[in-house]
Design goal:
The protein has five helices and no strands. It is an all-alpha fold.
């Protein structure tokens, strides 16, 4: 496999992952009790549609089909399945919100890694326009991760205060 083929495959896989996430985020948002979390997930669902469009634009710039040979990789499927399983296991609404945040952040961290790698590869290949678009999305993914952390902190405190300490 050539350098450019690795980059193209990574972009096509990321396109598939973002498309899958775009369909999953509204479902997560509907389960959130915390209004800030619900709003964050809904807004990120909209941003994810923009991420899909940017990836489509990049792939079209290099003459490749957006879906192409890409797949929702086993790792992404695992993250999705883990999040869905946890949501069904957790009945307490506060703890479910924390499970939703954890699932969303795991996917964000995956995407941050993928976008950082793709951006570096695009720059190295002299694809500056693609690198700029990838950097824009990377910045948005990092901001979403921080936003979710900020939302999680008071929810963690609430959950911890409602339960006796495990350090006893």
């Amino acid at each position: 496999m050539t350098y450019s083929r690795v980059l193209i495959t990574d972009l096509q896989n990321l396109y598939q992952a973002e498309t899958e996430q775009a369909s999953q985020l509204p479902k997560l948002a509907a389960q959130a009790q915390n209004e800030n979390l619900r709003r964050a997930l809904e807004e990120h669902a909209q941003a994810t549609q923009e991420h899909v469009m940017r990836l489509r634009q990049i792939l079209e710039m290099i003459g490749e089909a957006p879906g192409g040979d890409g797949e929702v990789t086993p790792g992404v499927r695992g993250l999705i399945n883990e999040g869905q399983k946890r949501q069904h296991e957790v009945t307490d609404p506060v703890l479910r919100d924390l499970a939703l945040i954890a699932a969303a952040q795991k996917m964000e961290h995956y995407e941050i890694s993928c976008y950082g790698t793709a951006r570096a590869m695009a720059r190295t290949a002299g694809m500056e326009d693609a690198a700029r678009l990838l950097q824009t999305t990377l910045d948005e993914e990092e901001a979403t991760d921080k936003w979710l952390t900020d939302i999680a902190l008071p929810i963690h405190k609430m959950a911890a205060q409602a339960e006796p300490s495990i350090a006893q």
